[in-house]
């Protein structure tokens, strides 16, 4: 986060910067998987499904999110590593190439309609909101 402050040539009071940085670290450490996602992730793994993570999170948040997973994804496409951010088509192309699948073989699941549903659909992937995805795995279905 500090690099952005310098890149944007912003003046930030030192004490304020320390407070913001500390708050961001605390928040990043609080990241947890959604309640049913660990079970869903494990069930999909048992079927041999490839699992990937595509995220616009910053490095601190991205690292925390990856650590919250039951196991490492087969593919991780992270904006802070690739230089691309959703909904830029390049990041979705990277998902396709890293998974070594065709776009129509991928289901993209996320929580933001423009970046996690519309963006992937533009490239031919199926996509759905994470709440609907969780509902499909609920015992009452």
Count of helical segments?
8
Helix content: 40-55%
Mean pLDDT: 88
**Which structural class do the helices and strands define?**
mainly alpha
The percentage of residues in β strands lies in: 5-15%
List the strand order in the largest sheet: 1-2
Q: Which shape, going by the Cα principal axes? A: globular
Listing every helix as H and every strand as E from the N terminus to the C terminus, the arrangement reads HHHEHEHHEHEH
The counted number of beta strands is: 4
Distance between the termini: 43 Å
Give the low-confidence spans: none
Radius of gyration: 17 Å
How does the major sheet shape up? 2 strands, parallel
Task: Give a brief rundown of this model.
The protein is mainly alpha-helical and 141 residues long.
What does this structure look like?
This protein is mainly α. Helix content is 52%, strand content 11%. Helix 2 packs parallel to helix 4 (59-68).
Looking at this protein, list some descriptive labels.
141 residues, mainly alpha, globular, two-stranded parallel ribbon
Topology of helices and strands:
Blueprint: H1 2-7, H2 14-29, H3 37-46, E1 52-55, H4 59-68, E2 75-78, H5 79-82, H6 89-99, E3 107-110, H7 113-122, E4 126-129, H8 130-136
Parallel strand pairs: 1-2, 3-4
